[in-house]
Amino acid sequence: MEGLKKPIRLIWSVLNARTEGLGLNATARVFGVAKNTILKWETRCADLQPVLVLYCLVHQFLQVVIEGDEGYTRVKENLPADQSLGWTILLMDRVSRFIWTLNCGKRDKKLFKKAIQRLAAIIHHTADVTLMTDGERRYGHLLFEICSELIRNGKPGRPRKTLKPDVKVRIKNKGAQAHKKGRKLPKYQSPWPEHPQTDSRIQTQEIHANHAEAFFSALRRKCATFRRRTNTYAKSSAGLQRLLNVYWVIHNFVRVHFTTREVPAVALGVLERRLSVDQIFQVQFA
């Protein structure tokens, strides 16, 4: 709260409007606040995201089912989808709707690896982790690179390399992969071998990323910079990430989710009750 001269309620109203679909210029006109002032408030709120992530990662979880998906938006100029800097990776807990990762950038190995490193940190604090994706194989490949171990059974030969115990990954074979001539691939499969101690039984109807896809549909309505057909798009990837971090803080710790009727952090078990706006602005960070 250091250096804030405006009332906290006004700051909250501005941030709430920004995460409900109002653009930067429109917000400045409605509330009579300079654009640079709004950007400073957003930056201060966005800086809380790394601190709150670390706070969540110190907790232990029994079972976590995470859905992974990615979407893109226009950044700076209208480019083909594969060249856009607005690709955003989402890792979201299915039950509580808690967002673990919401990072944007170019759709390359660096972006996926950053998300999988967060997932690897979750695995260290969870007894049972399941990852469901929409068919992007880089999730499973990078997870196998970061989170795998050798099975030493005392037999001669090279030890078998598998995912860590109680880690399950399922991807959907879609497009040409599912319709190749010859041996037909299963609709869902694990991209890499799982540990022998892992209970790999997953019901087919449970393998989907519907909640992640619904989140991106809502994000296009609530986040002005995530719209591709209006001039409210982000002018830089840093500006897009700043607003995504603001949305992450408000979504996880302040706003009640309409489906679970709870704040996602409370539903996940990280907090006993939702954080007030005053408490959000009293969180200290370096």
Overall outline: globular
**How many individual helices?**
10
Averaged pLDDT: 85
Gyration radius (Cα, Å) is: 21 Å
Order of helices and strands: HHHHEEEHEHEEEEHHHH
Description of the molecule:
This protein is of the alpha/beta class. It has a domain at 60-210. Helices cover 37% and strands 17% of the residues. It has 10 helices and 8 strands. The strands form 2 sheets. The chain has a 6-stranded mixed β-sheet, sandwiched between helices. A hairpin with an 8-residue loop joins strand 5 and strand 6 (160-163). Helix 3 packs across helix 8 and helix 5 (109-123) packs across helix 6. The longest helix is centred in the last third of the chain and has 17 residues, at 237-253. The two termini are 13 Å apart.
Distinctive features:
single chain; 286 residues; alpha/beta; 6-stranded mixed beta sheet; 10 helices; 37% helix
